[in-house]
Design goal:
This protein is α/β, with parallel strands linked by helices. The chain folds into 4 domains: 7-124, Arc Repressor Mutant, subunit A; 138-280, no CATH class; 293-471, 3-Layer(aba) Sandwich (Rossmann fold); 476-539. It contains 27 helices and 10 strands. It has a 5-stranded parallel sheet. A hairpin with a 2-residue loop joins strand 4 (248-253) and strand 5 (256-264). The chain starts with 6 loop residues before the first helix and ends in a 13-residue tail after the last helix. Mean pLDDT is 82; it is low at 103-108 and 543-552.
Length: 552
Amino acid sequence: MTNKTNCTARLARILKAVKDNGVAVSRSPQYKEDFDYIHSILRTSPVQSILVACILESSFSHSGTTAKQICNMLGCTNIEFLDYSHELDELIRRRLVRQVTSITPYSESNGYTVNDGVIEAIKNDEVFVEEPIDNLSAEQFFNYLGNMLIEHDRDRMKAETLKNGLKELVDSNPQLAFCKALDKYDVNPGNKLDYIIFMVLCSNYVNQGNDSIHMDQLLGYMGVMADLHATYSAIKNKRMPTQQKGLIEFGINEGMADTNILALSDEAKDAFFADLDIELDTRKQCPDLVSHESISARELYYNSEVFSQVSRLTDILEDAHFKEIQSRLEAVSMRKGFNCIFYGAPGTGKTETVYQLAKQSGRDILQIDISRLKSKWVGESEKTVRSVFKYYQWLIKHSAKAPILLFNEADGIFGIRAKQAERSVDKMNNTIQNIILQEMEKMEGILIATTNLTENLDPAFERRFLYKVEFTVPEPSVRARIWESMMPFLSAGDSESLAAQYTLSGGQIENISRKCAVEYILEGQNPSIEAIHKMCDNETLFHAPKRNRIGF
């Protein structure tokens, strides 16, 4: 049998009386004992207890109870309901009730729901204890902030209600470095959407180790459809106050600045989170950053001189050696960065060597798409190039080992600069090259560029490459080893014969081995040596021109 004195039964009894007699029930001596008991659980006034009962009755959905529904249950008009609005505001202030927004394709309506903690207190007949929000530690502050945003995202709390809740949380914790920084930089609720955006980014940074968020996800926090277009436009054109103060910037996608992503700037991270130790997930910052763990180990074969130079680089990039070398260079005021260029004929192993260096040294690779650096929009290319190096420096700071910055097939960007450039494209290319030259001067990590063409390498770039490795077409003995490794079904004599007869690069031999694999799949047996010779003839239809050596 139900206990008729518990909180649930008393709220139900009051609600039934309200449906018959309206809010006047709050003054009836007949229900004083019920109101007193509910007050002992929730510390609510009689009118507030009635409002809680009404909202509970019809809010078991994400849309919540609308003001019209409450009016119908109270038997009052919308105007009369204004007399009780301050009681509802107090429930919201004390976090017993949340104001939510229900958005459909055709309309938007406001509603109210009772907080989960209040429902549990009512169900269990236990005193509801408000969670304190003052004098919090930094960890407690951001945990509370994160929970508030989760509730907002789940129940579509109004942006205005969220803003007020955030302000109360900040005002209650003036001792925190974060709240002091908000005051210093004048980040305040005066611009509601800018304030919410910044708080969302800060919460993600602390609670998830991710300093950026996609625009679509971010605008979901705004909650007021009429503001979305204006907000999106303001962000795109960098008119948001936090953008203008240098606290928010466009994020990174595939190593490039992306206007669909917002991120906290380094200045914001340094100023707002002094009392927190935050470990970032660098994979979230650049999903296409190539992890060294994802690279398959391969044995590569070089001519003796190339082998010697690659071995030296392998030794240098071993982490303990690399740090020691950088430390000693810094001690004598020399540049700490390592700029390398791998040049030579296509298919000689330049790019694969970079990958194997990364695998062996445990370094990730930030590979840059050269074509994306040359945007068709005037001014955007320069910003993109700067953002590449800025992001790379961020990766160095937040990675266990400095990654490798790879400019693959960099012929078009390290070429000779145009003299007396008049065309806009020439001016843009010169500007990009000047930026790269400046950034290479202050590099603290590892930059490797690969190129097939060295005749057009600008002398200014050549001087900035500390190590220059020419990848030559392998000698016959090396080619024979490549044939054997890629096509183990060949006899030693066949491998040596193919190596002697065809001056092929490792990439070309790999192409032939793949064709042989296809033949095996289709025919169920390896192709004959005659068929392989024919494949070699097809692979050597034209030859690359001789290239000039630029030294090591």
